[in-house]
Amino acid sequence: MATYIHAIPYMFYALVALIIVPLFIFGVIPKLGAMKSAYKRVEETGQVYSKESQKWNKNGNEEVDKEAKIVDFLFPILTMIIVQLTVGDMFIAIIAAILAAGIIYIPRKKMRTNQFCDLWVQGFADSVSALVIIVAALWMRQASADINLPNYVMSVVEPFVNANIYPMVAFVVVAMLGFITGSNWGIPAVCAPIIIPLGAACGANLLIVIAAIVCGGTFCSHACFYSDATVITSSSCGIENMEHVYSQLPYTMIAAGIASILFLIAGFIF
């Protein structure tokens, strides 16, 4: 854990991606690609969701509850966090959060008991498509492991690396493997035992190498259309999965490009 904490200052992709968010909000970074088209659609038609995403938002045109309060959001979320930290089981924490929502919604007549139960069941049903994609991604990850894809890629890259460019190469390789397999957790775990000893052998700064591995997995979770983070994000927001991917891809590529340059500079400086 101490090593991981010391590697945080070198996690350039994560830091750049974090900085891009407020820069986009304040208009410093312009709207690009699918994101620009989405904003244009809202301005011209008032339709927040596209035709492709409308099927996930059948109730999207209902009048907004004018009496909604921030506690309606915070109480279930805080309940989930506290239960997770207490029992260490995310499934139990999610169930607790749903029950907490019922406790503050039903007595205040935000919704009826039968409506609450129907929405609970509907929530599970809406998660099926996301689960199917994630299961398919797990199959692909296992297939990649069975054919030793990470080992093969590293053996191809190994003759061309030195201490200075190694962190950048490590980031690019993990990011590419993660993007191909959709395994933003599995690929870093598989690659770390290969990449770190190789970095030590060529004299690279291992803190930067570790940061590069973690950042490669983070890029995958942002960019790959069937990574668990992307699928769950699009599903929870009621957006067609590929629409979400196309809207965020230009910004993830900007962050990846800047991060690659920073890893290269850090490799020479540190």
C-alpha-based Rg, rounded: 22 Å
Mean pLDDT: 86
Low-confidence stretches: none
Distance from N terminus to C terminus (CA atoms, Å) equals: 21 Å
Work out the helix count: 14
What pattern of helices and strands is seen along the backbone?
Answer: HHHHHHHHHHHHHH
Topology readout:
Layout: H1 2-7, H2 12-25, H3 33-45, H4 51-54, H5 71-87, H6 90-105, H7 113-126, H8 128-146, H9 149-157, H10 166-181, H11 186-202, H12 206-223, H13 228-237, H14 241-269
Task: Kindly describe this structure.
The chain is mainly α and 270 residues long. It has 2 domains: 209 residues, no CATH class; 44 residues, no CATH class. The chain is built from 14 helices and no strands. Helix 2 crosses helix 14, helix 8 packs antiparallel against helix 13 and helix 13 crosses helix 14. The radius of gyration is 22 Å and the shape is globular. The two termini are 21 Å apart.
Key features?
270 residues, mainly alpha
Summarize the structure.
By secondary structure, the protein is mainly alpha-helical. It folds into 2 domains: 209 residues, no CATH class; 44 residues, no CATH class.
